[in-house]
Amino acid sequence: AAHAGSPVTIPANMLPQGGHFVSGTGSIGTQGLTETITQTSQRGIIDFSRIYNGTTSSSGTPTFGTLFGGDTASFSQAFLSKDVLGSGKSTLRASGSVTITPASLIVNAVSDSRIYNGTTSSAGAPTFGTLFGTDSASFSQAFLSKDVLGTGKSTLRASGSVNDGNGGQDYAITFMDAAGTITPASLIVNAVGDSRIYNGSTSSAGTPSFGTLFGTDTASFSQAFLSKDVLGTGKSTLRASGSVNDGNGGKDYAITFVDAAGTITPATLTISAVSDTKIFDGTTGSTALAQVTGLKGDDSVTGLAERFDSINAGHRSLSFGPLTVNDGNGGANYILSILNPTASGAITPASLTITANNATAVQGGPQPAFSASFSGFPAGLGSGTLTGTITFTVTAVPGMPGSFEVLPGGLSSANFTIAFVPGTLLLTGGNNQPVDTPMNASNPASSSAAPTTMTGGEISTTGSDKTLDFSLPPVLFSLNYYEFIRTNGLLFLDPSGTIRTSSETGGSGADTGNLRIPSLDEEGKHMGTLIGFNSTFIEICRARAALCR
Which of 282, 311, 325, 470 counts the most CB atoms within 10 A of its CB? Predict the structure, then answer.
């Protein structure tokens, strides 16, 4: 059998029909003779004569029958002998080859449409042209992609071979594509029921169930509550979500998510008061906040600020509330557990400083109106929160120039620890000095009293060291000082003398006993020779021996 693509050598004694050759005759003459060519053809071999040239070559061209399709042939002829054998006795024989080309065979894929199954398979059967003889063929078709690409966008291509005994080389096969469609496969994903305690999120520990995946496709699905809040038994909806990894962005599946019913129950919220201590500030406010345990997510509680049961200093209790749970669900996500509604605390007294304001006065003049400054009152509070009346104790002798303490007092409060700070009274010398106006029982102090010259005989002395020096000017005592002076009188003072009233008779006066006049004040300044005495001076001298020694 002859197959396409193979050169075939054809014997010269075969007829052209069926690929055979016919022999012819010719003559080779002696050298120098004229060549005789016979133009008659005997079935493919041209008869002719030539002169001997030492070869078997022949310039004749064999003739041959019809070739089919793209078949081609190449033929030549030659003498079987180079020698001169006689007229018509030299045999000519053709030789050559024929090339057989493959037959054209067109194979057409057919359109197909199916649901995604993870493969490129197609149930369509390709169509193809004529096969020759006993040749047979086996063709199939498939999608070029397994994925869903859209209507008419999936290409189908045929493949296969011809069984022609020549490895399929007798046919030149052309495969023609076709358009097809792969539609998404249905995939149902079911959420499963779940029940848990409120945690501030929509999370669910349940795992959704789903249908069949094809090939090597994988899926990742989870589920969650649609609301984080407590809605009641079976009233919390669970919904699945996720995707399929199919190499096509999940387009190979039409996914249907089916919800399920679930339950979220309230969480326990524990609240306890905590202890606190503060300094008195006139309010019940506290910086402490009740302790909260169990809040979830961004939830919060208002009303945790604690307050004391009283504004006053002392042992106190603290409480909190009213409470508001801010969970976006009106507080329904929690069950409140108040472990300690109150806690012990204390308010300690605040420090308060009361300082006497400095004052000035003139010797012999009236005592000034004293005042004080307050430091340490909490905002909005003043001296009205104190009990008592403010007093001032003055250590100065109004008739004696110098600087003297003014000590405030008289005020108190359980809410304050009070520090009293003295001020200063500055007593300066004046122009109106009681130096020349003698007074006695018959000459009372008045603007019309006439001066009286007194002698030492009017003053009795006691003791060997009580000798009086009348060179000093007289000093006027305040009238009617009961403890010291019983009657109006005039005194003469000496640093070593005893103080007595000028009208003293029969011991009706009072004797201070060795009371001496200081020469220097407490600041080391000279006190001068003229000193006015009153009850304050006497009291100071009795209490402070360092001043009157």
Answer: 325
